[in-house]
Each structure stands twice: as structure tokens, then as C-alpha cells.
Amino acid sequence: MSAGIRLDWGVAGARAAATESPAGALVIVDVLSFGTAVTIATGRGTAVYPHPWPSPDVESFARARDAAWAVPRREVSDRHPWSLSPAYLLTAPAPDRLVLPSPNGSSIAAASSGHVLAGCLRNATATARWLERGGFGTGERPVTVIAAGERWPGGELRPALEDLLGAAAIIAAFGPQAARSPEASAAEAVWLAHRQHASEFLHDCFSGRELAGYGFTADVTLAAGHDTQDTVAVLAEGAFRRATA
């Protein structure tokens, strides 16, 4: 029987999954920070447009959609209080529309089509339950959870522990009737064995320590909050929006 729940990595994995199973769904997991930022922003009523980064046309892309746009974390100002920082997005004014560029999760989402969701630890169970209610998670309509990963200096994919954990938490939230691929099963086993250490792992992993070193420990803490939101973020008409039940 073909697996209904699958795991892959990066933009190449997302493209392969969409080509192989166009009737399926993708869940793009970028725990630090795109997936968490989208979950927080859509939970506050903002439509979030993904966009590749770096890109010189972010401002024109945003203006064409009458949207605000996010800037790098350390360039936040009173005029542009939005960035990839989940902590900033939790306290900044919530615009109706926001362009949120990033080199990993947002770039993957911008290159994807079909049934696409943004996932993280905060909305892991809500995302899985929404997909199950929609009839996804079967061999005919599989769910491929895409761990975004990070980038090495040369641009190559660097697998990231935080995204493995986020993807695994979503996989584990599906019911036992959904057949897992070997990759998904292995990730789920990691989550079941170490879920109680997830917050510790996020703070101590390379990406978490990097953010803390830049002064953004609060972002790591927010990202580590497993199942703290019931927000399901679905890509529709170019933007992630909070799904209705």
C-alpha cells in the first residue's frame, strides 16, 4: 500500500512530491522561523504572502498586493515593525496582508502550488487533524511533510534538527490508520522518543544558538511551544490564510 504520510526535504523534495502526487498536500515546516511566523500572523488575521529571499523586488511585489512587507530582524523600525521574528509578529500591529520573504520556508512555499500548508510545532496537531478531515493522508491523497532545512554558505541544503522535530510532531499527530513511509516513521520515532526534550533541543541546536546569539531567544521559545495554537495556515490565492473548520 502506498504511504499516505511522507517526509522529504527542501524545495527539491517539495517539487518531487507535487509532481508525483498532484492530488496530495504539502506541509512546509520551517520552525525557526517562517512556519512559526506564519502561524502567529495568520492566527491574528493576517494574510501572508511567501516570497523568495534575497530578492530585489520584495517592495514592488508587496505594493502590487497592497501589502506590508517584512524586513530582516535587525532592520525592524517603527515604519516596518514586521520581520521573520515570531516575537515581533506577536506584538506588532497586524496588517491585513504581509509579504514575508525568507530563503527557506518562504522560498519553498513561493515555488509550490496545489494544497500547501505551513506547519510548525505550535500548530502540529491542528494541521494534521485538518488534513485528515479533508480526506488527506491516503495513498491517493498523500501528505508530504517538507522539512525546509537551512543553507550552507554555498547554498546547499543543510538538514536542520528543528525542522525534523517540527515535521515529526505533525507526522505523529496523524491517526494510526494512515500508513507512514519509512522516512516518516523514522522521524515519528524521533519525536516520540524525545518530545519531552523538544524545547531543550531547539534552544541548544545550531540554529537556536545562532538566534540567541543575535538576541532573539524569545523567537526560539515561541517556536518551541508544541500545540499552543489551533491555527491552520493554508495557501490560497498566493497567500497563507487561517483555514476555516
Overview of the structural elements:
With 245 residues, the chain is α/β, with parallel strands linked by helices. It has one domain: ComB-like (putative 2-phosphosulfolactate phosphatase), CATH 3.90.1560.10. It is 40% helix and 19% strand. It contains eleven helices and eleven strands. It has helices at 10-20, 34-43, 58-64, 86-91, 105-110, 124-133, 161-173, 182-194, 198-204, 206-213, 217-223, and strands at residues 5-9, 25-29, 47-52, 68-69, 97-102, 115-119, 143-147, 150-151, 157-158, 233-236, 239-242. A six-stranded mixed sheet has the order 1-7-2-6-10-11, sandwiched between helices. A three-stranded parallel sheet has the order 3-5-4, with helices on both faces. Strands 8-9 form a two-stranded antiparallel ribbon. The protein is globular and about 50 Å long. The two termini are 30 Å apart.
